[in-house]
Design a protein that fits this description.
Alpha-lytic protease prodomain-like, Divalent metal cation (Fe/Co/Zn/Cd) transporter, membrane, mainly alpha, transmembrane, about 80% helix, transmembrane helix, 7 helices, Cation_efflux_TMD_sf
Length: about 230
């Protein structure tokens, strides 16, 4: 009974808040993205592969974006002034837009290489199904996170949702290229690279919108939870 009470208190302390749960899940995805980015960078240098290196650049930018957003989230949790907290949240939101533009630009380079040179690493065997499962899982979590947290008007959480959507769409592009190639489509890389470049343009447009969009002013009620609006 005591153990159950203890575990319950731990749950509410660390995971009782929806925003905290979102941040914690993003820490887990950050670790996966960091391992992926570093692994591709090592392979790129070892194999002298431009495709692996450009992919690694994308993943490392993604990691830097998530690290700075999550760090600022912990900072805002300790701030007492609603006005100062909101200013910092809005700064993070606009900076997140800049990171989305960088992600769009870096991934467009990956897709451009794929289109012009046909430079890509195609997975085979059971790895294909693992890649597809991971991609659709990311997309489901991105959509669910957006829907579940739609009432949380926190600029920092909104930034994380945008970054997760970007990550999910890139995974879908990789899955499309892999599945089409496995089916023997002669235009697998061309169509996938064009789809990827279209996604890159979308990421940049999202980033520009974030940089110039002014979020609704938050309440100055000191008792509200960080980043939420009344």
């Amino acid at each position: 009974m005591k153990m159950k009470t203890y575990l319950k208190s731990i749950w509410f302390h660390y995971l009782g808040n929806k925003q905290d749960r979102t941040a914690l899940f993003n820490v887990a995805s950050l670790v996966i993205n960091a391992v992926t980015g570093i692994g591709k960078l090592i392979l790129g240098i070892y194999l002298l592969s431009g495709w692996f290196i450009t992919n690694a650049v994308y993943y490392l930018i993604l990691c830097v974006a998530k690290v700075q957003v999550l760090h600022k989230y912990t900072v805002t949790k300790r701030m007492d002034s609603p006005e100062e907290r909101y200013r910092l949240e809005l700064t993070v939101y606009k900076r997140g837009g800049l990171f989305l533009c960088l992600l769009g630009a870096s991934y467009s380079m990956v897709c451009l290489r794929m289109y012009l040179i046909g430079d890509a690493f195609i997975y085979e065997g059971i790895i294909v199904y693992i890649v597809a499962t991971v991609a659709f899982t990311k997309l489901v979590f991105a959509v669910y996170g957006t829907w579940a947290n739609r009432h949380l008007h926190n600029p920092i959480i909104s930034t994380l949702k945008m970054i997760n959507f970007t990550d999910a769409m890139v995974s879908i592009v990789v899955t499309q290229a892999t599945l089409l190639t496995m089916q023997g489509s002669p235009l697998a890389l061309k169509t996938s690279s064009l789809f990827g470049m279209g996604c890159s343009v979308l990421f940049c447009l999202m980033g520009v919108w974030m940089m110039f969009h002014k979020k609704k002013e938050t309440s100055t009620d000191p008792n509200r939870s960080p980043g939420t609006e009344c």
